[in-house]
Sequence to fold (231 residues):
Amino acid sequence: DAKTTQPTSMDCAEGRAANLPCNHSTISGNEYVYWYRQIHSQGPQYIIHGLKNNETNEMASLIITEDRKSSTLILPHATLRDTAVYYCIVRRPFNSGGSNYKLTFGKGTLLTVNP
Amino acid sequence: GAVVSQHPSWVICKSGTSVKIECRSLDFQATTMFWYRQFPKQSLMLMATSNEGSKATYEQGVEKDKFLINHASLTLSTLTVTSAHPEDSSFYICSASEQGDHQPQHFGDGTRLSIL
Fold:
């Protein structure tokens, strides 16, 4: 799987948009971009994923650049409960053969939302 | 939808005992489940891939005889830490995904294991 690069930490003011970048310059054509977050002492929570089009759900928006080498997760109105480690992961589809559908977690970005 | 339940949430036991952790997909069937381990201030590390009706696939460096995995049904996988020692103390997390090529994995809330 393609490796990803994320900033170690970011701060955001409560109520403002949080924009979390991720670089995945070696992404392959069939690899999806997934975002998860982990609040302290809990299991990771799925946020959103996409292939090449921008995606939006009730939690966040995912903006993927046209060349797919980077993406940005947007939390439109951050709250204190959004403080967590955010992981950007690229992964091949389940049927791609071998074990490439596994998720490989990096160190992620610690987002701290301040009051 | 797509809820994964893990039990127990935490367990404390003496060195040398075996501990079983259950992972259930509550509202979907999962032919494949995953088991991770997370040490303090570190990221999740995949231990093994659990396949319904067949043997689990272990990651390099993970002892299959120490970490027994059983995936007897489409909604239940178990991880048994045999003869646990203090160095096995960790946060164990399972995940599962619905059918489909790019369906996301959903995670349980984890099991905090402390071996005295």
